[in-house]
């Protein structure tokens, strides 16, 4: 193994690619573990959730190695790893999960009870998620490997589809989870808030689940134009503040069967200022009685940059009474990636889901990660995929 390099959070608005320690088969507390593997990172993506930290909107400490969207090749394994072999190409769910606790046994791997001493749920390279080192790097360690990792069945076929398969670590299952929990099915009319990569993944998921109409709303004209190009109905929120009326212009009705919030807590209103609950309130307004709202967009318990003291502690001014009166269902929380990634892998391998084109996957070298973060923060209509070893370019 050559020396490792990774993307390091320096402070609000700043990341750097630095030399970092080579990974070891160790837990964050320093305990030796044998259930893990070391991966040579084949691809690793920049995520909107990373941007929340980089903008200084979480309690992340400087020095954090970022990255939770990882695809890699097994180059070393612990003695307890029985299923995986050296040379396997695998997708890494962003959830760190033990496979043994009650939540993992029930399929709720997004809230594993053992991998994070401070709360339920663990993730790589993320604040308050257990201290697991991130994978925007050349090499990374993955624990509980036999349980967590999805092995691709054929190396050559996987590498030919790697731009698509790299989305299995997070945004595709997250978008699918949002659509599934919103009750999308054959003939559904669907509205997705947010035309970023997760929103587009949710829209793509709604389409393969059988939706009749999939609308995507945003203020970003470049992202809306891309959404239109890949087959969705764009809703330009800059043209007015009456969302039901804008939806009715497309479908003939001001309500939808299912709504998906792919924006999260940094949502903005027409005033240009932040209104962290505006999307949630709009979802309740436009979703029909007895309809469902999926919320894959991130909401945090602590937001140092929030617009008011309540929002700094995750308390938002929601019209919950409206949702209650309409008997709506809401589903929040981290996506349990393992529930969906194998089926979604099959959809990709059999040409049913061209997710890389839908999210405009754009490959850049690891050493260009800083520029990738800057461009993504400016709202470019791209999903940046880092190529630490030049394997994707080749």
UniProtKB/TrEMBL annotation:
InterPro entries: ADH-like_C, ADH-like_N, ADH_Zn_CS, GroES-like_sf, HCHO_DH_non_GSH, NAD(P)-bd_dom_sf. Pfam families: ADH_N, ADH_zinc_N. Residues 35-153 form the Alcohol dehydrogenase-like N-terminal domain. Residues 197-265 form the Alcohol dehydrogenase-like C-terminal domain. Coiled coil: none annotated. It comes from the Bacteria. Its cofactor is Zn(2+). One of its GO terms (molecular function) is formaldehyde dehydrogenase (NAD+) activity. PROSITE patterns: ADH_ZINC. Its EC number is 1.2.1.46. Keywords: Metal-binding, NAD, Oxidoreductase, Zinc. SUPFAM superfamilies: GroES-like, NAD(P)-binding Rossmann-fold domains. Belongs to the zinc-containing alcohol dehydrogenase family. NCBIfam families: fdhA_non_GSH (TIGR02819). This is Formaldehyde dehydrogenase, glutathione-independent. The lineage of its organism: Bacteria, Pseudomonadati, Pseudomonadota, Alphaproteobacteria, Rhodobacterales. The gene is fdhA.
